[in-house]
Design brief:
This protein is mostly helical. The chain has a domain at 1-6 and 19-39. The chain contains two helices and no strands. The radius of gyration is 12 Å and the shape is elongated. The protein starts with a helix and ends in a 7-residue tail after the last helix.
């Protein structure tokens, strides 16, 4: 997402629960997403 966002592309963060990820991987995904979104400041569009 960071690369695409840096190129001006729109992106989303979708997680499919119950696939093959572990609880720890879900937590890591959400933590990384939270850190990245926090670094962007008020530039996020919600639909």
């Amino acid at each position: 997402m960071e690369t695409g966002h840096g190129m001006g592309l729109r992106s989303s963060a979708t997680m499919m629960f119950g696939h093959v990820e572990t609880i720890e991987e879900r937590i890591e995904h959400l933590a990384r997403l939270s850190r990245w979104l926090s670094s962007l400041g008020p530039t996020i569009l919600a639909a």
